[in-house]
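Help! Submission page says 'invalid entity' but I think these are all valid:
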Amino acid sequence: MIWKPAWVIIQDKFVKLEVGAIIVATGMGVYDPTEIEEYGYGKYENVITSMEFERLICAGGPTEGHFVRPSDQQRPKRIGFIQCVGSRSKKYGSEYCSNICCMNTVKDTLLLRDHYPDTENYVFYMDIRAFGKGFEDMYMRSKAEGVKYIRGIPGEILSINGNGDLKVEVENTLTGQLEDYDLDMVVLSVGVKPQDDSPTIRKLLTLSKTSDGFMMEAHPKLKPVDAPTRGVFFAGCVESPKDIKDSVTQAGAAAAHAQILLNAGKVKIEAITSRIDMDLCTKCGQCSDVCPYGAIKWTKGELPELIEAACAGCGSCGAECKFDAITMRHFSDHQLLAQIDSILENEPMKKLLTFACNWCSYAGGDFAGISRLQYPVHSRLIRTMCSARIQEDFVIHAFEKGAPMVLVSGCHFADCHYINANRQTVRRVLRLWDKLDKLQIRPERLQLEWISAAEGQKFASVMRKLDGKRKDVTQEEVDYSIQALKASKLKGDARKAAMEQLKCPRPPEPISIPPSTNGESVFQCMSCGHTYTGHYDAKEELVEWSCPKSECKSNSIRVHRKKAGK
Amino acid sequence: MKDPKVEVNFEKRKELEKVLGADQVSYCYQCGACVGDCPSARFFEGFNPREIMLKSLIGDFDDLISKDSIIWKCSNCYNCYERCPQDVRPVEVIIALKNIASQNETSPKEILDVTRRIIETGYSVPIVSTSNRIREELGLPPLKKIDVSELKEILKPDKKTEKK
């Protein structure tokens, strides 16, 4: 067979365009099964992937539609399909279901039955997931056509002679019988994975990913085509593995959403954005580092530049700025401090000061109310757009005004409505715990919890637990912390003298560091006091922590950054 | 499983999960990858690692740890360990069951013989008078006598396994 390739020279070219919206449709990658040694892909010529099968049976493919097996160019008579290769596995490939491989195999078997009715087809599966419109019909049609479906994943593919014939050993789990199948060709139904270069695009457009590596949408149910960065939309498998129909549906939605933006000409944005006072700014660039949207442009030695259209209003920059140069509109320092003051004006010992983020924790409190769950009446909520708005000063101010307990709460890591702003919350709370510890104030009086909008139950139970802790705080302790925090604001000798005069009525309990840990950090649950060791590196991306004790599960996990065992 | 109604005995399963090696058993989704490659399943009627996992899953494994149990047919080849997509480690679950059976003193006589032989001589196969003669004929050095005092110290029953 002579196959003449058509040579077309395509040269890369950089084109500069000014656009109003971006649709990311960079597609997906396919799992490479070479690492699964028992299937012998790459070792046996006649073990091919489902993608290669598509090319073999395609009229425009290398064999011009003649369906032959690679080893001897003869037409195979007995063909086996193995499902879930590189999907639903903790060992190889991915743990998620790749969504398309089941129906792809059913389609392939029907194609084979149509073109070559004399072939025998076997499908080895653990579950056939035929979930879409008309899918079950197609599966039944394939069964009725005589394709044999065997529930069981083969242990090994063996070569029985040098001619490329294969043998598959499998247990038919529906009968419990161990069966051998002699096959001419085996097709591995490979799973899909994110594109290898997806981190590049993620970085370029400040997008984030879900745990499976695919791009994260702004909201899994209500904004499935929008990226967290406004003006960016997803279409197709870049967001999750999906079939043609779903991809077309999503592409249509993405195009329509983009069109809304383009037609409007001018876009209205929320008034909750940050504002930088250039007179107070010291050009340190901290704000630019913590902005999850890249909305603050800064080069060393220059004043930062705020792109208001890109700002989503989380307030992380405002909390980070040590020079009060950044004002968050509608959530200014002045407004939030005034709320703290008025809450703690009368009988502060009876108040449970809670910072709650607008999207999750505050809504979780709402849900607890709607569900008529009982929780103590002492809680007082201060709403911010994101938990990242909560400045360290606010918590210190609350303790200075006599608050017995302070709770900082926000969305779970996966749900953060400002991409990853609440990782900054963790860093700030960790710093606060260290600071309180240094001043001999019990750090347990500051707690951190992640409460989603659906977790009304958790909201109520957290409030009950914290109310118990609030009752445990003594008046002397609060008086001491007010004095200590005041003294800590003095400078030099005056501070030293003031601190020496104070006597701590209830110093924090020293934690016991377990012996013989190599290079691991010590984690301490600030709710139940449980300590354990684990890996922590400040430079790596944070993961959501919760207490390993099943009866606690608190998110108030403190890391002792000094190495354990020292 | 003749009875269509199956009740899971969670307490028994939890008990099993506490034994070393069996902690992942609840992840099994019965795909059967462990059976396809199992040499024992091929040659012993009734031995099926997937079914052993299923019985462990539903906490109905009394017959597996009783006398004449099928689990002793497992040859510890670790093929299932390699194949399992869910990291259940079927062979280690079977070893855990064997450990339970040994504690209940329901392991077969042959196994006890081997155990005793290892403790006493350090060899798992019996050393008879002909052994060294055959070795000599093959040009191999005679078998060494093994110091088992250390082995005995290691294998001494602790508080948990001591007979009451």
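Support: the input was valid. A stray whitespace character was the problem, and the output above is from the cleaned input. Chain B has a mean pLDDT of 88.
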